Amino acid sequence: MAAVTAFAPATVSNVACGFDVLGFPLDEPGDEVSARVTPRGVTIDDILNDGGRLPREAARNTASIAVQSLLTRIGETRGVALTIRKGLPLSSGLGGSAASAVAAVVAVDALFDAKLSRELLLECAFEGERFGAGSAHADNIAPCLYGGFVLVRRAMPPDIVQLPVPSGLSAVVVHPELEIETARARAILGDTVSLADATRQWANLGALVDALHRSDFDLLSRSLEDVIAEPRRASLVPGLADIKRAAADAGALGCSLSGSGPSLFALCRDLGVATRVADAMTAAVVRHIGGKPQTYVSLISMRGARIVSADPKGPALQV
Amino acid sequence: MAAVTAFAPATVSNVACGFDVLGFPLDEPGDEVSARVTPRGVTIDDILNDGGRLPREAARNTASIAVQSLLTRIGETRGVALTIRKGLPLSSGLGGSAASAVAAVVAVDALFDAKLSRELLLECAFEGERFGAGSAHADNIAPCLYGGFVLVRRAMPPDIVQLPVPSGLSAVVVHPELEIETARARAILGDTVSLADATRQWANLGALVDALHRSDFDLLSRSLEDVIAEPRRASLVPGLADIKRAAADAGALGCSLSGSGPSLFALCRDLGVATRVADAMTAAVVRHIGGKPQTYVSLISMRGARIVSADPKGPALQV
C-alpha cells in the first residue's frame, strides 16, 4: 500500500466527574492523517489548517512520535511520511493532539498491514499524547480509538472499559474563540485535592457508570458534577456559570468543560434537546466571550478512528 | 404494638476503591434492637454483649440518637425504651454503630406504624451514625438498611444507588482479635490526597461498578485496589500484605480492610472459593496477630435490616 489515510474524531474528556479517566468521541470534527512509505525514518510532509503553529519536526510532533513508537514496535526498518489535516481547532480541549496521534497510528498500521491490537495501537498513540499533552492520561486517545463512552481504568499498560451508551444520548460542544494551553490548565490544578472533594468525585463517577448501564438519565444528570477540575479552571472561561445555567435551562443533563477547556460540552437525552441546548449555549458564549464560537451537535459516536482511503498509488490527501 | 424487634446486619464498607461511598451487608452477624413504647423520651433498657462498654445514656448512644430523630420527625410525643443486643464485635470495622442505629429506627418505625420511606429511615439512622462514627458517611447504614451492593452518591439528603450483584459473589470477613478506634483510623488519613492517587481511585470505582453490571469477575478483581485509605492504615493491622497475599493465592478476587479495620474482607466468585479463602486468611491472621479471629463466609446479602418479631404484649428480647 503506497498511502493510507485515517480519520480520528474529536473527543470530550473528563466528562465532569471523570477527570483523566472518562471520554467519548463526537461524529465530527476530526483530524485526518495520510501516511506514505519512505526509505527510512519518520518525517512530516505537511500539516494543513494549523496556521503553521504545530511542530513540523518529527521528534516534537505528537503524530510522528506515535508513529515512531509503532515502527519500533513492529521492527519496521522502512520509514513513513505524514500529512496531517487538522479538522480540530488547536488548544480547544477537544483532544486535538490525541486525534492526530490516533489517526497516524491507525493509518500506519494499515500502511504496513501490521494488524496490531487496539491495546498496542493505544500504547503507540499514548507515546505521542504523553509528549503532546505534557502528562500521561489516555481519556482522549482511548475513546478516539475505540469509539463510545470509555473509561480508562489504567492508561499504561492499557485497561480500557467500554461503557454502554443509552439510546439517544447526545452531546453538544461549543468551542469559544479562546485558547487555553493544556499545560497551563493542568498547572492550575495543583498536585493535591481534599479527601472530601475526591470522595464526592468518585461517588459521582460510580453513579455515572451505573446510570449509563441503566439508561437512567436522572441519575446521569445528578452525577455530572465536577468538584475537582472545573472549580479551579472556571476563571479561564468567562461566564462559565451562566453558560452552564443556559444549558440546564434548555434541558441539558449536565454541562462542563471539555478536557481542560475552553470548549464546553453538554450531554442531552436526545438530539432534539441537544439542538436547543446548542442554541442556548452558543448564545451564552457569544454574550460572555464574543467572537464566533464553533458549535457541534452529535450522538455519542460509537465509531472511533478509521481508515477513510487506502490508495495503492500514492497519497490520498490532496495538499 | 407493645414491642418490636429488628435485626440489622454487619456491613463491609469502603470495599477497597469505594472509600466512604460503597458497602454491602453480610447475612450475619448483626445487631438486634427491641423497642417498647414508654410515656415519654428515649431511654435504653439494656445493652447485651457489649461488655458494658457502650454508652447507656440515650444522648450519647447511636441507636437512641437515631430513634430520637425519628420521633421528632413523625411528631410522636410518646417515648421508646430500647434493648440492644450486640451481635457485632465492637470497633471491628463491620459497621456496629450503623447496625444498632438501623435496627433501632426499623423497629421504632414499625412500633408506631410510621411507614417512613427508606430515605427517611436512612436520614434518622444517619443522625445516630454521625454521632457514633465521628464523621458523616453512609456507606455502612445504607447497605445495612437497603441490602445488596450499595453506592452512596450523596449521604444527605440521601442519593442511594443499588448496584447489581453478580450471581455467586461471596464475601469472607475475618475479624482479628484487635481493636481499632474509628476516630483514630480516620485521623491517620489526613485531609488531602494526591490528585494522581484520587484519579486512580475513581478509575477503579468506575470499573468496579461496570464489573458488577457485567458480572465481569476479572475486571472486578483488577478494580479492587485501594490507594487512598489502605496504604495509610496498613500499619494498624500487622501482616496485612501477607494476609492479602494468602487471600489472593487461595483465589480471592480482592482483599482489603473492612471499613477502617481491623476486620479484613475478601470478595470471591462463589461460596466454594470463599470457604478456601476464609481458611487461608484466618491462618494468616493467626500467624501474624495471634488470638482467636472470628471468620464469616456469606453471599453478598440482598437483605437489609428487617423486623424479626412484633409482640403485642411486650418486649421480644429475653434479657
Fold topology:
Two copies of one chain form a homodimer.
Chain A (H helix, E strand, L loop, with lengths): L2 E11 L8 E17 L3 E7 L13 H13 L4 E7 L10 H16 L6 H16 L7 H6 L2 E6 L4 E5 L6 E6 L6 H6 L4 E3 H20 L2 H7 L5 H5 L6 H10 L4 E4 L6 E5 L2 H19 L4 E6 L6 E6 L8
Parallel strand pairs in A: 3-4
Antiparallel strand pairs in A: 1-2, 1-12, 2-4, 2-5, 5-6, 7-10, 7-11, 9-10
For the structure shown, list the relevant keywords.
Ribosomal Protein S5, domain 2; 319 residues; Alpha-Beta Plaits; 12 strands; 2 domains; seven-stranded mixed beta sheet; globular; four-stranded antiparallel beta sheet; alpha+beta; homodimer; 10 helices
Named CATH architecture of the largest domain in chain A: 2-Layer Sandwich
The general outline of chain A is globular
Domains of chain A (count): 2
Quaternary structure classification? homodimer
Low-pLDDT windows of residues of chain A: none
The percent of residues in helical segments of chain A reads 25-40%
Order of helices and strands of chain A: EEEHEHHHEEEHEHHHHEEHEE
Overview of the structural elements:
- The structure is a homodimer of 319-residue chains.
- By secondary structure, chain A is α+β, with helices and mostly antiparallel strands.
- Chain A has two domains: 3-163 and 302-311, Ribosomal Protein S5, domain 2 (2-Layer Sandwich); 170-299, Alpha-Beta Plaits (2-Layer Sandwich).
- Chain A is 37% helix and 26% strand.
- The first copy, chain A, is built from ten helices and twelve strands.
- In chain A, strands 1, 2, 3, 4, 5, 6 and 12 form a seven-stranded mixed sheet that branches. In chain A, strands 9-10-7-11 form a four-stranded antiparallel sheet.
- In chain A, β5 and β6 form a beta hairpin.
- In chain A, α1 runs parallel beside α2, α6 packs antiparallel against α7 and α9 (240-249) packs antiparallel against α10.
- The first copy, chain A, is globular and about 55 Å long.
